[in-house]
Amino acid sequence: MAGLVAYSTIPNIHNIPVQSNTSIVQDKQIHVSSYSSTQTPENVTVATGKTNQLLVNLTVSLDTGGLSTAQFKLFTNDRFQNCMLDSQPGACIYSRPASNATIVIPLNSSTTYYFGFDNTSSNSSKTILLSASLHTTSMSRIVARDGDWNVGGLGLSAIGLVVMLYGAVSRTVIPWE
Which of 28, 68, 103, 116 has CA atoms 20 to 30 A from the CA of 133? Predict the structure, then answer.
């Protein structure tokens, strides 16, 4: 009995990471003329209570085919004026030059995000290949009965069962009969 009680009352907790990827943009080509900028809006729905990261893959190239650089900006609609037009440093969620890169940006709200590309300081037109996906991570907690104490409790229960069965089937000889 003590073995069965030990098996059933002592939990073994496993924390298992659960990950998922949702495609936001798949191989979209964006042309940015010289001395100009452009942006493309994309709806992003994040999972509440989980870690959400936007994975952005960018390849910036000249019209001649060589690699180049452009300023990549990520912002929401309410920050368009400050981020894209006024270039205020704190207005963008992300604002850095990019060439051939994978960028990881943490997100915490579902909204329309704008992928902006600023080429205003260059006299060459550029083509940007954009791919983005939302990577979501959470921890799943599973309570199992597979720990060392659980196995010990089952072993003790098995020994108790054998002793009980032996006692039930063995014949007791009473010497005074």
Answer: 68
Q: Is the pTM of this model over 0.85?
A: no
Question: Which H or E run contains 27?
Answer: strand 12-32
Whole-number Å distance between alpha carbons of 13 and 152: 17
Can you list the domains of the chain with their CATH numbers?
2-13+143-169 (no CATH), 16-140 (2.60.120.680)
Share above pLDDT 70 across residues of the chain, in percent, rounded to a whole number: 81
When computed from its CA atoms, the radius of gyration of the chain, rounded to whole angstroms, is: 31
Q: What is the spatial distance between Cα 45 and Cα 23, in angstroms, rounded to a whole number? A: 11
pLDDT tens by residue, 158-176: 777 777 777 777 766 667 7
The sign one gets for the Cα dihedral 70, 74, 78, 82 is negative
Left if phi > 0, otherwise alpha if psi is -120 to 50, otherwise beta: which for 168? alpha
DSSP 79-125: GHIIIIIS--TTTSSEEEEESEEEEEEEE-S-EEEEEEEE-TT-SS-
Q: What SS3 state is found at 173? A: coil
